[in-house]
C-alpha cells in the first residue's frame, strides 16, 4: 500500500497527465494501492484530486472515478465502524475498572482518593470529526456568494490575465446554486476555457472574447439551471459546449417559446401568399362563430391530403387540419 509521500507523488503526476491513457493508469494505481481512511484522505487530499476528474470528457475516466470514490467511501465507513467498536471496548473497560475500584473502597480495602475530575465518556477518545465539505462527494456549504475568492480558489492558471479572468467568470457562473466542491467546479471551468482557446487557434482574439462572454452569459442565466447541471455532471463536454449555438444554449422554456413563435411565423408566412376564402362551413372552437377564412397547402407527400389552415375572422383563433 502507498504511504502519504508516494500518494502525493502520484497526485502530481495525475495533475500533469497528458492524455486519458496516462490518467487511467494513474487512477488504477491509486485504486489498487491506497487504503482510504479519514486521516489519510485529509492528509493527502487524494480524494479531491481524483474527484477533479469526475467531469472528464472521456467516459472511461468518469466511470473509473465513480468506482474509486465508491470504493474509498466504503473503506472509510468500515474504518469508522472498526474504530467505533474499539472505542466502545475502551469505555467498557474504563467503566469496569472504575467499578472495581469503588467496590474495593466500599469493602474497606486500601484506596487512593483521586483528585482528578470525572471524565465524560465522550471525551475519552472519539473519532476525528470531519465537516461535510471535507468529504469526497459531500456538499460545499457556502456562507457568501460563490466566487473563486470567496471559495478560497486561486485562478492564476495561465500567464495571460484575460484567460484567467475567463476562468474566474466561468467558475462564478457554474457555482450558482451549486453545492459541489470548489476543485470540481474549477476543473470544469478550466476545461471550458481551454476548449474555447483551442477553438480560436490558441489566440486571445476578439472571437475568443466574444465566445467567452456568450458562454458565461448563458451559463449564469438563472433560468438555465439545466445547462449548469449538465456541464458539472459531464453530460455536455467542453468540446461540445464551445460549438453550440445560442439557440442550443438557451433555457428550455425559451426554446419552447422560440418553437411556438416559429410555428406562428410559418403560419403567417404561408397565409400571406395564399388566396384566402371566407366560409361559414367551419365553426371556430373558441368563439363558436362561423365567419372563418381558410387556405389549403400540400405540406406532406403528394399522395396525402391537403392541409387546411383556418383563421376565425371574429376572434383571430387559428387552427389547421388535414
TrEMBL record:
Residues 280-320 form the TFIIS-type domain. Gene3D superfamilies: 2.20.25.10, Conserved domain common to transcription factors TFIIS, elongin A, CRSP70, Transcription elongation factor S-II, central domain. GO terms for molecular function: RNA polymerase II complex recruiting activity; RNA polymerase II transcription regulatory region sequence-specific DNA binding; zinc ion binding. It is found in: Nucleus. This is Transcription elongation factor. Residues 76-143 are annotated as: Disordered. Residues 5-79 form the TFIIS N-terminal domain. Necessary for efficient RNA polymerase II transcription elongation past template-encoded arresting sites. InterPro entries: TF_IIS-typ, TFIIS/CRSP70_N_sub, TFIIS/LEDGF_dom_sf, TFIIS_cen_dom, TFIIS_cen_dom_sf, TFIIS_N, TFSII, Znf_TFIIS. NCBIfam families: TFSII. Residues 96-134 have a biased composition (Polar residues). Transmembrane segments: none annotated. Belongs to the TFS-II family.
